[in-house]
Amino acid sequence: MRINKNINIDFDSIPIETFWNTGDKIENRMHRIHAYPAKFPAFITSKAIKYVEEQKDVNINWVADMFCGCGTTAYEATRNGKNFWGSDINPVATLIAKTKSQIYKDKTLRVYFDVINVEFRKNKISQDETQNINERIKYWFKEEQIKDLFKLKYSIYESIPKKSKYLNFFLTAFSNILKPTSVWLTKSIKPQVDPNKKPANVIDAFIKQFEMMRKANLKNDIDKKSTVKIENINFIEKEMKKPFVDLIVTSPPYVTSYEYADLHQLSTLWLDYVKDYKDLREGTIGSLYHNSDFTKDAKLLNKTGEDIVFKLYNKDKRKAQSTAKYFVDMQKTIKKSYDMLNMNGRALFVIGNTEYKNIRINNAKHLIESMLNVGFKDIEITKRKISNKILTPYRDKNGKFTTDKNSRKVYAEEFIVIGRK
Ligand SMILES: C[S@@+](CC[C@H](N)C(=O)[O-])C[C@H]1O[C@@H](n2cnc3c(N)ncnc32)[C@H](O)[C@@H]1O
Fold first, then answer.
1. 42 Cα nearest atom in ligand 1
2. The sheet that has 2-3: what strands, in order across it?
């Protein structure tokens, strides 16, 4: 459906377009080297490139994703021979994205792996070192694993030069074994302790992880000639000097669905990205924990944002405040997206609508109004079926997640919104 001015359409009746539902091929193994809760399907980027190139009014040279997460768009853009620029506020995300955007020599990987192993066996950790460790690490890990993880981390840093791309490869491997070696409830993406869990042995987990990543690298099919730039920044604060991008493919964070920053706390703590994992919440779009000025935010909201926030305010003031901040942040994101695009460049957003205490949070409508306000043209909206969401799509009558299939489906579909500069 094409939208040029009137946004008062029935979003529920927009038909599902099968083109965006599934990919033609199985995702490349590189997409699975590290878990990332909010990852979106890889094929969307390849399809977006194809879809826009068929319209023949823009030459796609640079693809961007300002919420690049674990680098899904980055990987797919480079596989298609495009250059890529991306950002994410979460250092764990940019670590994985950078790792995925490189090809590694198998022989070198094996040499480094052996050196790390030798170092690991030589390394001794003093009592003092583990004693002074962050309290939060002690909360998630048993003593044996803390000692071994300490040794492993130092062995990695001692074995690989600081600026080498191989360091990122092994830090990504280290990061992905933190969950199995901790007491974090295995199947849960949310932070939850399993008191009965027997954490995996560190070196066994590392060997398994290394082999998995090594095999994935052998099938890595990115174009070596592509340029990839990934920044660990708050996109809203990025200085945009001049346009340089031809296509944006992104899935923005959702409003307060979960605290993205908290989900990666094991990695952020171990890799010394922050002292307190909660520090990463500030700046993360959609976080509940902002020191925002509600009166100021409310004045900046567009009409759709204002309507939704007003309804929420009558039920839950705190939720209304965080939603206002979310919408204002998204409006700034849309403006910056427009600024970074070359003429005729396209922006594709994957976005879903949610609900809170029976109030419809029409993110898609808010997004489209924001796009129209900054000058996007020929906006198209289509719907796709979500096939592999980790979160159950059902909600009970109180709005809580449930596996009961008779309950309301909330996340079973999402929108693809495309606009032209
Ligand atoms: C829905 S996820 C995107 C996942 C990505 N498409 C993938 O496949 O991995 C949204 C991402 O936005 C990031 N984010 C939130 N606020 C941000 C900000 N202010 N600047 C940059 N990135 C931000 C989060 O860290 C998260 O990785």
1. 8
2. 2-3, 377-385, 413-420, 341-351, 245-250, 62-65, 83-87, 228-231
- Identify whether the C-beta of residue 338 lies closer than 8 Å to the C-beta of residue 401: no
417: Cβ contacts below 8 Å, ≥ 6 apart: 348, 349, 351, 364, 367, 368, 371, 379, 380, 381
**Cα–Cα–Cα angle for 248, 253, 256, nearest 5°?**
165
Nearest one of 198, 228, 283, 208 to 102, comparing CA atoms: 228
- The single residue listed with the structure tokens 């826009």 is 52
Q: Given pLDDT bands bounded at 50, 70 and 90, which one contains residue 259?
A: confident
Three-state DSSP at 402 gives strand
Residue type for position 243: P
pTM beyond 0.85: the answer is yes
Instruction: Find out whether 317 and 356 touch, Cβ atoms under 8 Å.
Output: no
CA of 391 to the centre of ligand 1 (A): 17
Rounded distance between C-alpha atoms, residue 24 and residue 166, angstroms: 31
Name the residue at shortest CA distance from atom 12 of ligand 1. 67
Residue 38: helix, strand or coil by DSSP? coil
Mutation test of ligand 1: which of 28, 43, 67 has the most ligand atoms closer than 8 Å to its C-beta? 67
Beta bridge partners of 361: 354
Q: What is the pLDDT of residue 387?
A: 67
**For tokens 């590694």, what's the residue?**
104
Residue 350 CA to residue 363 CA, distance in Å, equals: 10
> What residues line ligand 1, using a CB cutoff of 6 Å?
36, 38-40, 66-67, 69-70, 72, 87-90, 93, 234-236, 251, 253, 260, 283-285
| Alpha-carbon gap, residue 351 to 417, rounded angstroms | 8
Residues listed for the chain: 421
Condensed to tens digits (0 to 9), the pLDDT of residues 237-249 reads 999 889 999 999 9
Which amino acid, residue 382? Answer: T
